[in-house]
Design brief:
Umud Fragment, subunit A; 2 helices
Length: about 220
């Protein structure tokens, strides 16, 4: 029969074992959270589509993964779908206050405001620094030639702002900047309104959609 001293030692060992297990669990949770945060900060970040500006490519509520790592080593190309910080004022309903400079009504905004917004937008890169871009009937005319754009919403009207569908006088995108447009051309506030986006405002490229299940796949 075990003595009182032996019982006390056994109880201490069990309590110590439970305490060690609790510490181990806390460490595992902290490490897991740290890894998750690090992955989102430096590698891949999930993003929820907040508006219909990218219909039919991306629907409201659809979720995508954004590659943040590659963005540190290479610049987006024409056709890439990217998440970025728009210029300050992009969230303002007063369209006249969004562009960084005064410009003719038949041209897109040639330069953004110098300060960025804290919001995150998702659009498609349609032109890069040095390109000349105009908009005719919702289609991009790049360096004098109309692009083939099978991804845009061909039924998109210009109910939000008729003028953004036809900006026939070209502008030149500044070096190091990127001209962003939504695929739902008539329902997208984009670079036509608030100007091209500097390279360092881009968060990363959207490369995969994981929700809803019937739309899982690469972009």
């Amino acid at each position: 029969m075990a003595s009182t001293g032996e019982k006390e030692k056994g109880g201490k060992r069990r309590r110590k074992g439970r305490a060690n297990a609790l510490v181990e669990l806390v460490v595992i949770v902290v490490v897991a959270l740290g890894l998750a945060l690090a992955i989102q900060q430096w590698l891949v970040k999930p993003y929820r589509i907040p508006s219909p500006s990218m219909v039919p490519t991306l629907a409201v509520g659809q979720r995508v993964l954004v590659d943040r790592l590659t963005n540190n080593w290479s610049s987006p190309a024409r056709g890439d779908i990217v998440v970025f910080h728009p210029p300050d004022g992009a969230d303002d309903n007063n369209l006249a206050s969004q562009c960084g400079v005064a410009h003719p009504a038949d041209t897109a905004c040639p330069r953004s405001t110098p300060k960025r917004s804290n919001s995150n937008f998702i659009k498609r890169v349609v032109a890069v620094g040095g390109d000349r871009i105009a908009i005719v009937d919702n289609h991009v005319v790049l360096n004098g030639r109309e692009l083939k754009e099978p991804f845009i919403n061909k039924d998109s009207s210009c109910a939000a702002d008729e003028s953004i569908c036809n900006l026939r006088t070209p502008i030149t995108v500044p070096k190091g900047d990127f001209f962003m447009m939504g695929d739902n051309r008539g329902q997208s506030s984009d670079s036509r309104v608030w100007g091209p986006v500097p390279r360092n405002w881009i968060i990363g490229e959207a490369f995969f959609t994981y929700w809803p299940p019937d739309r899982i796949g690469t972009l």
